[in-house]
Amino acid sequence: MKNILIINGHPDKESFCFALANAYQKGAIHSSANVEMLNIRDLNFNPNLEFGYRKRTELEPDLLNAQKKLKWAHHIVWVYPVWWSSFPAIMKGFLDRVLLPGFAFQKRENSLLSDSFLKGKTARIICTLDQPAWFYRLIYSRPSTNALKRGTLHYIGVKKVRVTTIGPIRLSSDSFREKWLKRVELLGMKTI
Fold first, then answer.
1. Which CATH superfamily is domain 3-189 in?
2. How large is the angle between the packed helices 89-98 and 61-72, nearest 10 degrees?
3. Is the entire prediction scored with pTM above 0.90?
């Protein structure tokens, strides 16, 4: 049985991202997967990596729990809105504080190379936009997706990452949103 962790990076619990995360969860549960939901907005932590990697900042209990869930998961789903071609600050803070050396990776001594510690996992990125998905891909080259997929997940060993980009959300119709909720629920049923 597959263990799936859904991480929602939207700070607003009434957002469409929350509806998407719930739809994925519904589909994954229907496929008999073990599913955990992690809403970053509900975690109690300082998103600032105050000393960078120079000095260790102790992890809050919610972040220790998040690390346990990341280790437990076979498949990690990231749901977030694209803001200023990136993800919300709270999600960036979560990544900075949780994906630490010794947990997600380790730089090799006297080398520019590092070792990845979350190998063998798969991921799906689901992000929402206020522009058409094709425009974000062709004009902007998907910076938030590239940062998460290549700069973060590949770096820590998660090599098989699929992307679902949904937009435009702003000014979208109820039928557009309902269609996407059904599609995302189906994605949850067919997790890679």
1. Flavodoxin domain (3.40.50.360)
2. 80
3. yes
